[in-house]
Structure prediction request, 229 residues.
Amino acid sequence: MHIERLDFENSPYLGVYGLATDRVLLVREGLGEKKLDVLRDVLKVPIIETSIMKSRIVGIFAAGNSNAILVPWYIWDTELERIKGLLRDFGIDMEVVPFKSRLTALGNLILTNDRAALVSKEFTREEARAIGEILGVEEVERGMIASYHAVGSVGVVTNRGGLVHPEAADEEIEWLSDLFGVDVYVGTANMGVPFVGSCMLANSYGVVVGHLTTGPEIVKIEEALGFLD
Prediction:
């Protein structure tokens, strides 16, 4: 299966608690083994259970792609070493970079795949350039989606496709498709929630959506993220 419904302690906002890339999944601590098995089966990558700044909202704080993961400068040393150590144990050569900025909600403010990154205008141009260099992407842009600075919470993009807030204009969709090099669609999850990045964990292998996501929403998500044959 490329797509499954799941909840984290009755919360349908899976993207708040994790970051999925094509090489690893960072996710909050304390999930049961059955839910971890679903995540492994669908996303097909090793899992690192962690906290960031002693918080479970890992997906709010972390952003990344196949090349690197950015975390807030204020991450605890023990958390950083745990993530780096487990990556080594899994044989994954991947940078984990504490990013020095007044902004800490990196997962909310950065939308990226392996080709490009869109970062909030809240970042300076210098910060945007640095983010692009760390992520190893061809292009990095500062901007908004549907008038929202939190581009990581109103969108989800992989190397196969993208889904963004339903109020995104046609011109924005075309621009995002060109930027990320994939088809981008508009849609919702969890019975009409437009903040799709907060509702799911997705990579090029699959997507796990909040348990409130409806059948029609799932069909649109599958189409947007490239899982409909």
Residues 77-89 form the longest helix (13 residues).
